Amino acid sequence: MSGGRRLYLDGVSVVFDGFRALNNLSLIVEPGELRSVIGPNGAGKTTMMDVITGKTRPTQGTVNFGEIDLTRMDEAGIANLGIGRKFQKPTMFDALTVFENMELALKAPRGPIACLRWKLTGGARAQIEQTLEEIGLQERAQDLAGILSHGQRQWLEIGMLLMQDPELLLVDEPVAGMTDAETEQTAALLVRIAGRRSVVVVEHDLEFVRALGRRVTVLCDGSVLSEGSIDHVQNDPRVIEVYLGR
Ligand SMILES: Nc1ncnc2c1ncn2[C@@H]1O[C@H](COP(=O)(O)OP(=O)(O)OP(=O)(O)O)[C@@H](O)[C@H]1O
């Protein structure tokens, strides 16, 4: 991806009541990169996502997105910069169709009068249809979101985030509770959508991380324990000791 921004965490620490949830964490995610982040419970994965999205302020260190220092911005400002986050539990309107949910996720004008005057333009319709194809739900466009399977709901939410055209997408445990087939399709989906944007995936499922086939960062005690291919980190004795060997 050309012209995208690099995410650069440099020496980030987060201290909660004397406890270091992040400890001098440094991490670079290149524009268009798809990065997996794994690590034992309490390693600091969620806190890392919270720091990037502005939910938690670092006690120390800097978080840059291109030239911009994210630690000086609030959550809304960071979202507006093009940093999207998918939480584990999908949030959508079950009583609306898949298409209507996508429509609501569009960058529509805000405010009551603007909303009343808002009509779906041809361009916006095409954008929704293209994204539905990207997430594999084009056949389900007119179905209510409430009847989708667990996996399809996760894909719809990813699609809704894509409607905002994020430059960086953070995805939290996307395949928890999915069938094997859904897990495989989710890996293919994330590989498809990276490149045009950067994607950071936090996940415990190592088979899924292997299917992504990209660089993996292992966090432990709030900092990077190991980094490289899945084979590299799975064979790293330190990773085996603190994570895989448990
Ligand atoms: N608001 C908070 N106040 C105090 N401690 C916190 C707070 N948030 C997180 N922690 C602690 O910081 C550590 C890192 O937590 P974090 O949720 O980032 O880990 P994680 O890698 O996401 O774990 P999991 O895989 O279980 O989700 C944990 O020990 C947690 O108890």
UniProtKB/TrEMBL annotation:
It comes from the Bacteria. SUPFAM superfamilies: P-loop containing nucleoside triphosphate hydrolases. The keyword Transport applies. One of its GO terms (molecular function) is ATP binding. Pfam families: ABC_tran, BCA_ABC_TP_C. Residues 7-246 form the ABC transporter domain. PANTHER family: CONSERVED COMPONENT OF ABC TRANSPORTER FOR NATURAL AMINO ACIDS-RELATED, HIGH-AFFINITY BRANCHED-CHAIN AMINO ACID TRANSPORT ATP-BINDING PROTEIN. This is Urea ABC transporter ATP-binding protein UrtD.
